[in-house]
Write a structure and sequence with these properties.
The protein is an alpha/beta fold and about 425 residues long. It contains 19 helices and twelve strands. The strands form two sheets. Strands 1, 2, 3, 4, 5, 6 and 12 form a seven-stranded mixed β-sheet that branches. Strands 9-8-10-7-11 form a five-stranded mixed β-sheet. Helix 4 crosses helix 13. The chain starts with a strand and ends with a helix.
């Protein structure tokens, strides 16, 4: 952090300077652009205007992977920000970065800022705590996947837009109807690994990896090639072959297709709400993520995506008070309720959810409570608490390659997932060796 002089020097007839107020500058690096970037900027401006001791400076550093890499490079160069946004798959990497981060629970205790760790909803908090339940980073933008429905496209294909889409069996039948009705894009997806493997596994209460999905030890191995996952990917491969599932890319490329009205169904983050509401010129629904009836313990609960805020080491001790005050501000009910309502991200505190409901938001915006219910309906199990795997960003890249082999018809689902396990496990063993 740096000290910045706020205000201009006033000059009297004697040319005597008037002391300017010194404010502590807090550097905050994030991965948001577009509407989400605008909302982050508004949060920062509101905090800056609420007090005169600190100035938070927000900076966009690229997508999630690019922001994480920028933060790591900056720390090595001694130029790290005070707060770094890191997506959830980078959690294990940040935990292993000894000396690079300062746990949030320590920052809040030292700063004296208002902080109640029990205020955060369990399904979110658990992802970012250590084995003692202490919060390592602050949940910021937490989402979970849902099913988006283009009601106009359904009607145009002669399909009842109120069709039951709660199970993948029903989705398969509707995809047949959509194709018969002339719909050229029945289903499109964003974040294929996160939704159709990571969340699929949690929702059906089957392991994605051993050792409680990595929470219980670095000696974890991938288990994504099990019968449930293979059966789901086999079905999706058949839909791809028949032109009922359209693959557009590894991240959120499919969002543009859905928002443009080109696809009937879309599996995407609940945080797609901001963009879809702003751009869609059609009637749409938000539905729960489908599950395979009779498989595992479905529907269990889905897991979060998004990111948390990590506090970087190496700053002046006195400056961490400003970091604590900003993180406390971000957790207040008003700020969280507004963020939830404007973005579709989950309210990270129970109070923000209560405030949203009391304001009548869910009644006026039907479907916006789906993600909250889906995440909190059942107590998380060892299989549905989340994932904590080293080198997970790289492992996701491997999974994406193998999934693309299925969609192209070059590999069976079993062959692809067996290969993903073998290749991913090699990275896990490297990470374990480096962090013993």
């Amino acid at each position: 952090m740096k000290k910045s002089l706020i205000g201009a020097l006033a000059v009297s007839t004697m040319l005597s300077p008037v002391a300017a107020m010194a404010e502590t500058e807090v550097q905050f690096w994030h991965a948001f652009t577009g509407r989400l970037g605008e909302l982050v900027k508004a949060q920062v401006e509101e905090f800056n205007a609420s007090q005169d001791e600190y100035v938070v400076v927000e900076s966009h550093k690229g997508n999630y992977s690019e922001t994480l890499n920028a933060g790591i490079a900056a720390f090595r160069a001694g130029e790290q920000p005070d707060i770094l946004m890191v997506f959830e798959v980078g959690t294990a990497t940040m935990m292993a970065a000894k000396g690079a981060t300062r746990p949030v629970f320590e920052v809040m205790a030292q700063s004296g800022a208002a902080f109640d760790p029990d205020a955060y909803i369990g399904a979110v908090k658990g992802y970012y705590t250590d084995t003692n339940g202490e919060m390592l980073s602050l949940p910021f933008n937490s989402s979970t996947p849902v099913l988006w429905v283009n009601r106009d496209a359904m009607e145009a294909a002669g399909v009842d837009p109120d069709s039951d889409l709660s199970t993948w069996q029903n989705v398969g039948a509707v995809l047949d109807q959509l194709k018969a009705g002339g719909e050229e894009c029945g289903l499109v997806t964003a974040w294929q690994s996160w939704i159709h493997l990571e969340n699929f596994s949690a929702y059906h209460d089957v392991p994605f990896a051993t050792k409680d999905n990595g929470f219980s030890g670095l000696d974890t191995e991938l288990a994504l090639n099990g019968p449930a996952q293979v059966a789901h990917l086999t079905a999706m491969g058949e839909w791809a072959k028949d032109g009922k599932f359209i693959y557009t890319g590894r991240r959120n490329e499919g969002g543009a297709n859905f928002r443009a009205g080109e696809c009937a169904l879309f599996t995407e983050s609940s945080a797609g709400y901001a963009g879809i509401k702003a751009e869609a010129e059609f009637d749409f629904d938000v539905r729960p993520l489908p599950y395979w009836e009779g498989v595992g313990n479905a529907p269990q609960n889905t897991i979060i995506g998004g990111a948390s805020l990590w506090v970087m080491e190496g700053q002046d001790e006195a400056d961490y008070k400003g970091v604590g005050e900003f993180l406390s501000f971000l957790s207040t009910s008003d700020v969280q309720a507004s963020w939830h309502q404007n973005t579709g991200y989950l309210p990270i505190t129970a109070a923000a959810g209560v405030a949203t409901r009391a304001a009548g938001f869910y009644e006026k915006n039907v479907g916006t409570e789906v993600a909250v219910i889906q995440m909190t309906a059942n107590e998380p199990t060892a299989n549905s608490k989340g994932l904590r795997l080293g080198s997970f960003d790289q492992i996701r890249g491997i999974i994406d390659e193998e999934l693309e082999g299925i969609w192209a018809g070059d590999k069976t689902a079993q062959e692809a997932m067996d290969s993903a396990k073998e290749r991913g496990d090699a990275l896990l063993r490297r990470f374990e060796t480096a962090n013993r």
